[in-house]
Amino acid sequence: MARVPISFSSPPTFSRRALHWQSPRQHDVVHCGTTWSVPRISESEASLAESLVAVQGGTAPLVQALKSTASQDVSCFHFPGHNRGKAAPSPFSQLIGSGAFLHDLPELPELDDLFCPKGVILDAQRRAAELFGSFKTWFLVNGTTCGIQASVLATCSPGDYLVVPRNCHISVISALVLSGAVPKYIMPEYNSLWDVAGGITPLQVDKAVKELEEEGKRIGAVLVTSPTYHGVCSNVQGIASFCHPRGIPVIVDEAHGAHFRFHDSLPSTAIEQGADLAVQSTHKVLCSLTQSSMLHMAGDLVDVDKVSQCLQLLQSSSPSYLLLSSLDAARAQLSESTNIFDEPLAMASTAKDQLEIIPGISILDLTSFASDFPAIDPLRITLSASDMHLSGYEADDILYEEHQIVSELVGTQAVTFAINLGTRLQDVQKLVKCTKLLSEKYFSANRFNFRKENNVRSPLEQISVQLTPREAFFSKKRRVHIEESLGEICGELICPYPPGIPVLIPGEVITQDSLSYLINVRQQGMTISGAADAELNYILVCNL
Questions:
Q1: What is the reported pLDDT for 502?
Q2: 331-347 as b/e, with b when 16 or more CB fall inside 10 Å?
């Protein structure tokens, strides 16, 4: 696919006293129906684009402004209290260096205002919008969580319905509590052998929307998680093609897909497929600091000003310029290289080829699901050692304790490894080598043993919603023993973390499947988030 050269203008001129910004940048908006034609970043026309980047795009305006401001010889009478590192706590300064404190600055005029950007932040966000192919991009310092929350608040009024997969992230549930929207859950396909949920299909969205329409309900938005934590992508284009003629905006939790635009071998982005709002964790596969994300917008179904208002409501009024500038720097890093993902993709492909021929090892791929999902992220490697009679937790413990290999995600049946821009070849080779050692030790020893059946069913199959998340959140609660909670209405959000997918949501009836699953993962050592009792001996239920 041919690439359109990326164009960046020079930074705007700035007068600190007059606070007068003059920017030559013009941002053209083109609406092209359901699916917006957004040129991808590919290897074609590379020499022309790279020459343009070398001249114009190599700079990061917010990073440069932060560097310039920090180098000023001034007498400071502003916050924060460490005063550009002069009173930095010694143990922490020794840990992260004095430079972090020197650049930990507040919203000084020359650094612009996140919530009313007119200067370097505006310029940085516009450059990001151009690179990521969106009409508008917002920088987020409260993570993808606040982007999800803002997207729901901007599209759903109290009482509106949000069509959403039941394996959505915890942030979606908090958005339902904040907005007063009512969930219409779609059950994703679930593979019990892997204990992994996939995506959702356009047909499922069609069915859910039509059911609500027949009941006379107002639909605020459809939210899709694509890709999932394991990299499974949904057909966002098909979903958008169904929703847009009905005036229904499509929100995509694309936390794990910020890198998709930057190589032809990667799946299409949500914006390329017609999503109205897409929230990306720039700090995951890309290289900004943890907690920094971006919210991208396309089309005209969503009120851009309302999104901005919701973000100001949800984000810190004292945003970290270290986080903001890291987003600008990550964007500049991508602009400077058109083949930045060649090596990670090659390493991931080679690793999968070598891992899948190891006796006792299986690799998650699209054939693991019956649904016609369009893609799976090639930079995610999810492996199972269940043929060696090892759970995901056991395999992960062995790889960490015996070989110092740290995974991204562990589940009851599988372990997931994330390949990213910082992954080294020797580490990938070590993963393959140590997985072979795992097989040599456990596959031969256990191959004649009876394979222990996985009796844990999906906790998401049979759910009954008695209260909205907001109603349940604000209702009076009582504490009951977990074994006596069956049939009660859950009053708290109980969520194994990672991956951050709630097993029980406030307002849902507690089922035997959900209890069995929680007890199983608790026994295997998984951290349970959201429950008042961290040991999960007791559960808060609604006292109706």
A1: 86
A2: bbbbbeebebbeebbeb
- Quickly state the pLDDT bin for 10 (edges 50, 70, 90): very low
Give the separation between CA 179 and CA 219, rounded to whole angstroms: 13
- 3-state secondary structure (DSSP) of residue 142: coil
This prediction has a pTM of 0.88
Q: Which residues lie below 8 Å from residue 489, measured CB to CB, with a gap of 6+?
A: 466, 467, 472, 507, 508, 509, 510, 541, 542, 544
| Other Cβ atoms closer than 10 A to 292 | 26
Taking a C-beta distance cutoff of 8 angstroms, is the pair 526, 503 a contact?
A: no
Map residue 218 onto helix, strand or coil: coil
Spatial neighbors of 525 by CB under 8 A, at least 6 apart, are 393
Instruction: Return the ∠ at Cα 230 (arms to 426 and 420), rounded to 5°.
Output: 35
The single-letter code of the amino acid at 2 is A
User: pLDDT, tens digit, for every residue of 41-71?
Assistant: 444 433 333 333 332 345 899 999 999 999 9
Q: Sign of the CA dihedral 492, 494, 497, 498?
A: negative
Structure tokens at 10: 């020079």
pLDDT tens digits for 487-542? 999 999 998 766 768 889 999 999 988 888 888 888 877 788 888 998 889 999 99
Q: Per this entry, what is the length of the chain? A: 544
Q: Is 444 helix (H, G, I), strand (E, B) or coil?
A: helix
List the 415-418 sheet strands across, edge first: 362-363, 380-384, 415-418, 409-410
pLDDT of residue 455: 53
| Residue-wise DSSP of 69-101 | HHT------SSSTTTTTTT--HHHHHHH-HHHH
